[in-house]
Design goal:
CATH architecture of the largest domain: Alpha Horseshoe
InterPro entries: ARM-like (IPR011989), ARM-type_fold (IPR016024), Armadillo (IPR000225), Insc_C (IPR045789), INSC_LBD (IPR031938), INSC_LBD_sf (IPR038205), Inscuteable (IPR039921)
Number of domains: 3
Protein name: INSC protein
Distance between the termini: 44 Å
Oligomer: single chain
Structural class: mainly alpha
Radius of gyration: 29 Å
GO molecular function, one term: cytoskeletal anchor activity
Shape: flat
GO biological process, one term: asymmetric cell division
């Protein structure tokens, strides 16, 4: 397959919206095709009016460059597909279009960039020459119908296409590295908060374009530069923005390595435990903690230094949850706590000592603070992970936690947003898991039975719509039902016992999943 640059990640948007945005670039390109890529000679003082990127800031220019690059990348892939089918007319017209896009991209970039390197200029020339050669090859294919000649030329064109893609990828990599270096130079050399704020904003925009960009920024020393800001009191006003950018960059292994090198976790612990910082700063520090402790990360070498500072970090996060003035702040702090409970049971013990269960249960009754399924997902994750400890049972009873878990069993999304629907399913599944774990304790099981938990679980098992057809919710509900049935066998009808409790779990699961089909 054709090697295309991995830096072409753009945030997924509605296809019509993408087409509308790209239309301007596409039509510019078609005009350029007619003009054979020759620029119109104009007066110097009018030049800026006709340059596509002149009206934009550096961030906008980079966005424009990435969009143009995305179009080129897509076109190169399509050329490879058409070439495979020997659609020579289409191959040629698309090659001409790519040629024009490449020239436009290079011209646009050179109008707003400063001090680009000799290496970049050489690569630009190589790419333009190779694109011209590519267009000449495909044009020659239109002038013959001899299958033998076309077959032999196909391998030449394939080779040229691969080289164009390779040069293009190298150029984009070089351009993005150059831009990251420029922004980091501004951060390093400027003492002006205003200039630094603009540069940090530029870095954040770059980091939003995906993991590849984050790797470039980390490799160029972005994490080191940003933590340097977070250690200087005179730049306190920049802390929230700086920490937000760090959270984006630290999603990649290179970012973690840099964080470890500069003792970033100690710096985060210092920020979180310093009460003189604003809530916004604390919340963004919590976001970095949530990022670097994500259970989805495969690299965990940084966690050894995290364990050394864990107690004070957990204490500060619990305080932030308790004092949160908004749902967003609570979400960031609780997400960090939820992730921490996954990788060390000691965190659960610390949370127990800090009375965290009571604080989290109280927060759930405040709809202003715990206002989305995402927040409830974090809370129930913490409860599920803490419920492995025997001492949690009495805390749950005291905080009216069984009632809350019962409510969470029927979490419903208020929209059809897929991520919100998925969050609701996680809340349902984890609340059932927590009930199953806590029902080891007779007092919790008794409270659950009195609150009609058994009929609720049966309803979720038997009605696919109630659990949004989720298999994971079904398995968790069957497990919780079986645990409660042991503690209170009188609470079940005989048919429920025979179908949902007595058989092997897998047989009950298959029975419940087939119910959906029988109703249709």
């Amino acid at each position: 397959s054709l090697p295309l640059p991995s830096s072409m990640h753009l945030i997924q948007v509605d296809s019509v919206q993408r087409w509308m945005e790209d239309l301007k670039l596409m039509t510019d390109c078609e005009c350029m095709c007619i003009l054979q890529s020759k620029p119109i000679s104009i007066e110097k003082d009018e030049q800026n009016e006709l340059i596509l990127s002149s009206q934009y800031s550096t961030c906008d220019n980079l966005q424009l460059l990435l969009k143009r690059a995305w179009i080129i990348s897509t076109e190169l892939t399509r050329i490879a597909q058409k070439l495979e089918k020997s659609r020579w007319q289409r191959v040629h017209s698309m090659t001409v279009r790519v040629n024009c896009h490449v020239r436009s991209m290079i011209n646009e970039y050179n109008t707003f960039t400063r001090n680009s390197s000799e290496e970049m200029h050489q690569l630009e020339k190589l790419l333009i020459d190779k694109c011209s050669e590519f267009t000449a090859f495909t044009e020659r294919c239109l002038q013959t119908e001899d299958e033998e000649i076309l077959t032999s030329m196909k391998s030449c064109i394939n080779e040229t296409l691969t080289t164009v893609a390779q040069y293009f990828g190298q150029l984009i990599e070089l351009v993005l590295t150059h831009e990251a270096q420029n922004l980091l130079r501004q951060i390093e050399l400027s003492g002006s908060p205003c200039v630094m704020e603009s540069a940090i904003s530029g870095l954040f925009s770059l980091a939003q374009e995906g993991a590849h960009l984050c790797r470039i920024i980390a490799k160029e020393g972005g994490v080191v530069a940003l933590f340097k800001i977070c250690r200087q009191d005179c730049f306190r006003c920049l802390y929230p923005q700086t920490l937000r950018t760090l959270a984006s960059i630290c999603c990649v292994e290179e970012g973690m390595h840099q964080l470890e090198k500069v003792d970033g976790i100690l710096c985060l612990a210092d920020i979180l435990t310093d009460n003189s910082h604003s809530e916004a700063t604390h919340a963004e520090a919590a976001a970095v903690i949530a990022q670097i402790t994500s259970p989805h990360l495969t690299f965990t070498q940084h966690l050894s230094s995290f364990l050394e500072n864990m107690e004070e970090i957990v204490t500060a996060l619990v305080k932030l949850c308790q004092e949160a003035s908004s749902g967003e702040v609570f979400l960031l702090a609780s997400a960090a706590l939820a992730n921490i409970t996954f990788f060390d049971t000691m965190a659960c013990e610390i949370l127990l000592q800090l009375n965290a269960m009571k604080i989290l249960l109280a927060a759930c009754s405040d709809k202003r603070i715990v206002d989305t399924p995402y927040s409830r997902d974090q809370v129930v994750t913490i409860l599920a992970n803490m419920s492995v400890l025997d001492q949690c049972a009495s805390e749950i009873i005291q905080g009216n936690g069984v009632q809350l878990l019962m409510e969470m069993l029927f979490e419903k999304s208020s929209s059809e947003n897929p991520s919100e629907v998925a969050a609701c399913e996680r809340v349902q599944q984890k609340s059932a898991v927590t009930l199953a774990r806590l029902s080891r304790d007779p007092e919790v099981a008794d409270a659950a039975v009195k609150l009609s938990c058994i009929p609720c679980l049966i309803k979720l098992c038997r009605s696919p719509a109630e659990r949004n057809n989720s298999d994971s919710v079904l398995v968790a509900c069957l497990a919780a039902l079986r645990r409660l049935a042991v503690m209170s066998p009188d609470g079940l009808e005989d048919s429920d016992f025979q179908q949902l409790v007595k058989p092997r779990l897998v047989d009950s699961f298959l029975l419940c999943t087939n119910m959906e089909e029988s109703f249709v």
